[in-house]
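In the laboratory, one determines a bound structure by crystallizing the protein with its ligand and collecting diffraction data. In a computational setting the workflow is compressed into a single prediction: the sequence and the ligand go in, and a structural description comes out. We illustrate the idea with flavin mononucleotide.
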Amino acid sequence: MSIKLFESYQMKNVTFKNRIVMSPMCMYSCEQEDGMVNDWHDTHYTSRAVGQVGLIMIEATAVAPEGRISPQDLGIWSDEHITGLKNLTSRIKKHGTATGIQLAHAGRKAVLEGEILAPSALPFDDNMKTPKEMTKAEIEKTIQAFAHAAERAKKANFDVIELHAAHGYLINEFLSPLTNKRTDDYGGTQENRYRFLRETIDAVQQVWDGPLFVRISANEYQNGGLQAEDYIQIGQWMKEQDVDLIDVSSGGVVPVSPNAYPGYQVPFAEKIRHAVKIPTGAVGLITRGIQAEEILQNNRADLVFIGRALLRNPYWAKEAAGELKYALQAPEQYRRGWS
Ligand SMILES: Cc1cc2nc3c(=O)[nH]c(=O)nc-3n(C[C@H](O)[C@H](O)[C@H](O)COP(=O)(O)O)c2cc1C
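The predicted complex, in C-alpha cell form:
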C-alpha cells in the first residue's frame, strides 16, 4: 500500500513533500510588541521543518496593528516586517519544507488598547470591548491592508497565503449572521455577508498568484449561525474566485465550546470537498498517523493540518511514519539516530 500522508502534493507552482501541514498557531511571542520575528519564531518553526513537515503555516499574522489579537502577535503591517519573515522562510525552506502565512485581522476579538473594529458594534462577551461598526472607508482600508500584507508576504518568499476567515475574527464576523447585523451592502443576505471576503480575495489576487487558502469555521455551534451546508454556497463562490484550498475548522464565533473529539471537524471538510469539488484541509484533534491516513485514503480531505500534536512533538512526522511503517527520510545530520 502506498502511504498517502507521505505522498507529495502539487499546487500551482509549489510542491509540498508530504500532506502534513503545521496548523497556524499564535505564539504571542513578540515581547517588544512590534510584530517582528525573533529567535523564538526562528527556533520554533525551523524545528518543525527539521521534523519533516510538508508545509508550515505561520501563525495568524496581523495585517494592521489594530487587527492583532494581542500586542504580542506577529505582524505584517509594515515593510519593516519583511526582512525577519524572509529570513524565516529561508531557514524553513533549507529543509525542503514549504512556507505559508496566515493573514489575519482580529476584528472584535482584539484585546488591545484603543478602538477596535468589527462589522457591527456587538462585543464577543461581557469581558470584551464593544467594537466600533466599520465605515465603508474603514472596510476599504482594511481590504487594502490584506493586499499590502500579501505583497509583503510575496517579498518574504512565502509559498502559500492563507486568509483567516475562521474563529470569529474579522472576516468571519462579516460572514456570520450572528455577528454581522449591517444593513448596507456588506450585511443581510449571504451574498452581502460574503462581500468583504470576496473583495479581500480579489485584492489579494491583484498582487499574489501563488496558492491561496482560506480557513473557515464550518460550524458556529449556535442556532442561527453558519453550518457546513452554508459553506457549500460560500465554497462555490471561493472556487469561482480561484481559491485553491479551504482549510476547514469550526467555532470561535460566539462563546460556545464545541464537543471536541478525535476528528470532530473532518466531516465538515469532507462535505465541502465533495459538494464543491475543491481541495480541503482537515484539522482538529488529529493526533495519529493512522487517523491522518484514514482521512486521506478515504478522500475526506487533501491535506491534514496538525496543531497541538506538533507543539508536543516537532518530530510528529517521524512518529506518524513509524505507525504507518513508512521509511521517512532523515535529515542528513540525524541519520544515525533515526531508525
Ligand atoms: C496555541 C494555539 C494557537 C493557535 N493559533 C491559531 C492561529 O493563529 N490561527 C488559527 O487559525 N488557528 C489557531 N489555533 C488553532 C489550531 O490551528 C488548530 O486548528 C486547533 O488547535 C485544532 O487542531 P489540533 O487539535 O491539531 O491542535 C491555535 C491553537 C493553539 C493550540
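The longest strand covers residues 55-62. Keep in mind that any predicted model is a hypothesis to be tested, not a measurement.
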